[in-house]
């Protein structure tokens, strides 16, 4: 009898590890409402798009996604706050903005974030950079701008919404490839940049396609920095078509959700799948179209590759601006 008892006891002990195996932390995720930190102000393009993307959150996550705005310093304030105070349980996300956050992580010595501290989940928008001038401008192509800049170094004034954003980076890329000197005027935002162009304060603007769509009768769009022409402005040629190959989609304003590094990988993968499904919901796509947002839904794996590719380009381009 004792031998039988010992045999049963040994068998039970062998099975014990499987019985006591820890539950998957993603099983109960999310356990409450999710906060998504938007590093730009209420009403900004990023804010509006982030709210559209979260509209059907309860359908996919079983919990609402609440947008928390932490604006300042072109996003640096909010992303630093997110890295310092965001929880690592998957309940605090952020709205990433490419190439802005990568450029800042390279240039700003006080940036606490980089592509290694953010786990992209899914992308909902891709707002390409365009170059536009007033309707009465003598410039009718990118070649016209380049020719004038070569003959008049520093005399071409172009604005954009701040430093080290896609607009600024597009100008730096054009300068480098064309061998010209342009004068960049940073503004507070895309709308301010547009108004300065209309008021004649600058000769043109590198700006988002969505901003250019607000005044189609008052401006001329000379080129779009993307891999192909856009359905919203099919008549506008790409920079690549006009011979400037560095202005592909490297400056396109990709926007989506991310978790901080340190969140359990099982939660990251579950959140990534749910976010991708959510952004593909018809209500999200319909509202993106209504607001004139160039949407591009991409999954986590695609964004991981884009993060790495963008960082490689920007590290080379921005070396002269790195803070010591």
TrEMBL record:
Question: Which UniProt key words apply to this protein?
Answer: Signal
Query: Signal sequence span per UniProt?
Result: 1-22
Q: Which CDD domains match?
A: PBP2_Bug_TTT
Q: Does the keyword Cell cycle apply?
A: no
- Which Gene3D superfamilies is this protein grouped with? Bordetella uptake gene, domain 1 (3.40.190.150), Periplasmic binding protein-like II (3.40.190.10)
Do the record's keywords include Ribonucleoprotein?
no
- What InterPro entries does the record point to? BUG, Bug_dom1
Q: Domain of life here?
A: Bacteria
Write out the similarity annotation.
Answer: Belongs to the UPF0065 (bug) family.
Q: What is the designated name of this protein?
A: C4-dicarboxylate ABC transporter substrate-binding protein
Give the organism, scientific name: Desulfovibrio fairfieldensis
